[in-house]
Amino acid sequence: MSDRFDVAGIGNAIVDVIFPASDEFLLEHGIAKSVMTLIDEFRAEQLIELAEESKQISGGSAANTMAGLASFGAKGLFIGKVKNDRLGQRFAEDMKSAGVSFNTPMAETSLPTACSLIAVTPDGQRSMNTYLGACRELTPDDIDPSEIGAVEFLYIEGYLWDEEGSKAAIRKAIAASKGAGRSVAFTLSDPFCVGRYRDEFLHLMKSDIDILFANEEEAKALFEVDTFNEALKAAKAWHGISAMTRSENGCVIVGGNDELHVLPAERVTQVVDTTGAGDQFAAGFLYGLSRKRDLRTAGRLGAVAAAEVISHYGARPEQSLKSKARQAKLL
């Protein structure tokens, strides 16, 4: 049977509210810089009131990756939960317009659709304050094993590990994917997320995960080391593929003990907003693998996608990533 989708992504379905802010603003309002902080509905309402010149864009880490894959020309399926409210309908419409299939039934009676208030400082760093809302409603009933088993790559967002129902849904999806001989990719999402679930993530790596995405700080948190070189050594000892990003220092791709690629970052005229850089790197990397490209080329495709998204506000590409990759002579 031929694969209907190249990649299925499971993640939080979120509408991003992005706004410019100064470092002083972050300090005044108690916003932790450059990380994701979970907040409640009351705090979300407070920050929405403070967010001037904001821009609403559907987001969520895995959802952003799926949109990037579609921009490359891949066929993607996104699984995540929204409520049947204004933001939920906006999210569904945005996924459809991006070329991503999104068929998860909307919740009729639940918490509101999730939102993330993202403060972007002049240095391009993003500080996320996320109200999960209806995301918490994802359960194993939302997973179709036959559908997952027919997809070449399953991509999982680490942020989902904050809810027991989501964990159960992920385990069901992994079982379907591995049972069909497919590959499972996992992104660590955030150093704080790693801190909360390090032991569980390491357990998943023993037999369930084939491809690991992490930035430098997440990798160091996962392996409990102080330097990137120590994290690299630990990644080499693992059996799978590690794709580790290092911002302006590019990325390092590890394929077990015998394959290592150190790649530079793509040059950009100006870094406007780093929101979604890791998400789009994953999109390019997975697209490369889905087209049977080698690890080095997959890493370069990831770098091209990340460079596009950091050149503007928002976590999804504004220009065709396929065209960008062709300009770079990667396709």
Structure description:
The chain is built from twelve helices and 14 strands. The protein is of the alpha/beta class. Helix 3 packs across helix 12. The protein is globular and about 50 Å long. The model has no long low-confidence stretch (mean pLDDT 94).
User: What percentage of residues falls in helices of 4 or more residues?
Assistant: 40-55%
Helix count, DSSP H or I runs of 4 or more residues: 12
Report how far apart the termini are: 26 Å
> Uncertain segments of ≥5 residues (pLDDT<50)?
none
Order of helices and strands: EEHEHEHEHEEEHEHEHEHHEEEHHH
Could you report the average pLDDT, rounded to the nearest whole number?
Answer: 94
Count of individual beta strands: 14
Strand count, sense and barrel status of the largest sheet are: 9 strands, mixed
What is the molecular shape? globular
The secondary structure category is alpha/beta
Note the quaternary state here. single chain
Q: Roughly what fraction of the amino acids lie in strands?
A: 15-25%
Specify Rg, calculated over alpha carbons.
18 Å
The largest sheet has its strands arranged as 6-5-1-9-10-11-12-13-14
Give short descriptive properties of this protein.
five-stranded mixed beta sheet, 12 helices, single chain, nine-stranded mixed beta sheet, 331 residues, alpha/beta
What's the arrangement of secondary structure elements?
Elements: E1 7-10, E2 14-20, H1 23-28, E3 36-38, H2 41-50, E4 55-59, H3 61-72, E5 76-79, H4 86-98, E6 100-102, E7 114-120, E8 126-131, H5 145-149, E9 153-157, H6 164-179, E10 183-187, H7 191-207, E11 211-215, H8 216-223, H9 228-237, E12 241-245, E13 251-255, E14 260-263, H10 277-290, H11 295-309, H12 321-327
Parallel strand pairs: 1-5, 1-9, 2-7, 3-8, 5-6, 9-10, 10-11, 11-12
Antiparallel strand pairs: 2-4, 7-8, 12-13, 13-14
